[in-house]
Batch of 2 targets.
Target 1
Amino acid sequence: MAAIKKEAPAALPGQPGYWAEACKHLARKDRVMKRLIPQYGDAMLQSRGDAFATLARSVVGQQISVKAAQSVWDRFAALPPAMTPAEVLRLRVDDMRAAGLSARKVEYLVDLALHFDGGKLGPERWPEMDDEAIIGELVAIRGIGRWTAEMFLMFHLLRPNVLPLDDVGLIRGISQNYFSGEPVSRSDAREVAQAWRPWASVATWYIWRSLDPLPVNY
């Protein structure tokens, strides 16, 4: 009697449908991934389904630790009745600063809200656009650089092959997992990531998890 092939569980809303395929590929191609992937069970990238909130979280998280970013975000998110562009534009600057946001991040969040509220962005077109085209659109907003745009590609659009070389955690994780803690250059990281194609987003997520048991989420 032929063995019954076990189907991978269907992805839930907000989860990437490619995760099981990506994990199989990465475990086959990369010794570190083969070790890391089984440690985290069924956990995976998750999209909150809210483009504005995802970008706002990324702005809040710039240049601070995951733990600090979550703390500031929790205080900031408690200010408006809903995390929408229009409600953020109604907030007082002093209240936003009291939540732990720097003056510059307040400016960035206001500019982000203005772009959404004024219809300057085209979220309805993003699913059909390639990664670099979306990055180009997003970096026109004050305070959104390539790293923030890449976090958006990964955590909102669930793009599978994003390699955020400006991410400190990724570089540190590659150093620890592949180079015994020795300093790593962007070139070194890019070389390691050759084996991750076309699933660099998935491999990056596992590298982050190797540093912090709490999953990164934006």
Target 2
Amino acid sequence: MTGRDTQLLAIRPIIESIIIRPDMSAEERFQNETLRPIIKLQNDLLLAIFSNYITKHKNVFYQLTIEKRLGYIENATQKDIKFRNNLKGVIIGQFTVLEYENYRLHSPALNKRMMTIVKQRLQSNIQLFETPKTIEAS
């Protein structure tokens, strides 16, 4: 294992609720051992990226009802390929070389799992995406 790999693994949060069972599929194991800790580590950055996405798309998000905001997040993470690739890059960049090799073998299934977790994280933090405050000049 390289120094980079060791450092990456050292900074990942430990998620106590994760249970690894011998009968898990390779994709489920990768999700629990790699994706969930990385996404938790990158949470603040993922939130900042989505906040910037809202701004780049003319703040339409702020005029939506809560239900439509949840749909907006789902649509952004599932259908906007450039945004989706940006999010994937933030996560894949935290893989060790061995994890990347494993990811390559199962990338379609793992991409789906990855985007589902990211979507859920953004949706569960929806209260953080409130209308930006304007500062009035005095």
